[in-house]
From TrEMBL:
One of its GO terms (molecular function) is DNA-binding transcription factor activity. This is AraC family transcriptional regulator. The keyword Transcription regulation applies. Residues 191-289 form the HTH araC/xylS-type domain. The keyword Glycosyltransferase does not apply. InterPro entries: AraC-bd, AraC_XylS_family_regulators, Homeodomain-like_sf, HTH-like, HTH_AraC, HTH_AraC-typ_CS, RmlC-like_jellyroll. Keywords: Activator, Cytoplasm, DNA-binding, Transcription, Transcription regulation.
Length: 291
């Protein structure tokens, strides 16, 4: 397991590994996120170029503990200083130049989500590489806790590391612009449409009704709804109906036909086809799996 303090160019092999290659080395990880490296790095004073056009195959979350440097993402310059947090995505070329007379101490968290091709991290995290200044905030303490726990290779501590990383990512997700619904008028109107779906899922809802509720044009509503919730309104409606059907199957003795009607389907066969297409099993099979 990687120690707390690392020399600048130790462990460079970890940065070059693909997600598939890291899994073979991470013996105490049984599910994502897979944390390949969690460590502090202390670069020498006055070292001019720390990395040039480096391309990673994993995500890198980096926090500047002390000092400053000039960061380049492609051709875009971005100076970073103590307290700054930034995220480098896979296959994004980047260069980091140190500043003469200034140290550069950082926490680096290298991670990935394995073979999952559908995990929406790249869509949900802020598009900007720079994530803000977190010095003195709970996020800073959580990064320190992650590095501390990573020193112990026991699977319980690695599980704690995953828990901390998920918590950090969730905080970044919920602070991202797409989730700040109440900060914009359009966001608040899209939320009205979502609430209408939640409250009237058993009814025959149309896009025209959602346009009326939100007072947004259809194209704008569809675009913003997908941006905020990663689903179209009609797919979101199906998702709600599936969740309600599962709840009724688990907690009542209603028949499949009765459940179909309760969640907005007059025809049980149409409901059955939809449920199996979305979940991979029939509602009867789902009921049998939990009772």
């Amino acid at each position: 397991m990687i120690g707390v303090e690392r020399a600048p160019h130790e462990d460079q092999e970890y940065f070059a590994l693909s997600p598939e290659e890291t899994i073979l080395r991470l013996f105490n990880y049984y599910f994502p996120p897979y944390i390949t490296l969690a460590s502090r790095f202390d670069f020498l004073h006055g070292e001019e170029e720390l990395y040039r056009n480096r391309r990673l195959k994993q995500y890198l979350l980096e926090y500047v503990e002390d000092g400053s440097a000039d960061f380049m993402l492609g051709e875009k310059p971005m100076p970073v200083k103590q307290g700054d947090l930034f995220l480098i995505r896979p296959d994004h070329p980047h260069t980091i130049h140190g500043k003469a007379g200034s140290p550069y101490k950082c926490i680096s968290i290298l991670f990935h989500f394995g073979q999952s091709k559908n995990f929406p991290l790249s869509d949900l995290l802020p598009k900007e590489t720079y994530l803000g200044t977190i010095r003195g905030l709970p996020l800073e303490d959580q990064l320190h806790q992650l590095v501390h726990n990573y020193q112990d290779p026991h699977w319980v501590n690695q599980l704690r590391c995953q828990h901390i990383l998920i918590g950090i990512l969730l905080q970044l997700l919920t602070s991202a612009a797409p989730f700040a619904l109440n900060q914009t008028r359009s966001g608040a109107r899209v939320e009205l449409a979502r609430r209408y779906l939640e409250q009237h899922y058993a009814e025959n809802i149309t896009l025209e009704q959602l346009e009326s509720v939100s007072e947004l044009s259809r194209n704008y509503l569809l675009s913003k709804f997908k941006q905020f919730y990663n689903l179209s309104p009609m797919k979101y409606l199906r998702w709600i109906r599936i969740q309600r059907a599962k709840e009724l199957a688990a907690n009542t003795s209603l028949s499949v036909n009765e459940i179909a009607i309760r969640v907005g389907y007059a025809d049980v066969h149409t409901f059955g086809r939809m449920f199996k297409a979305e979940t991979g099993m029939s509602l009867t099979q789902f009921s049998s799996s939990i009772k």
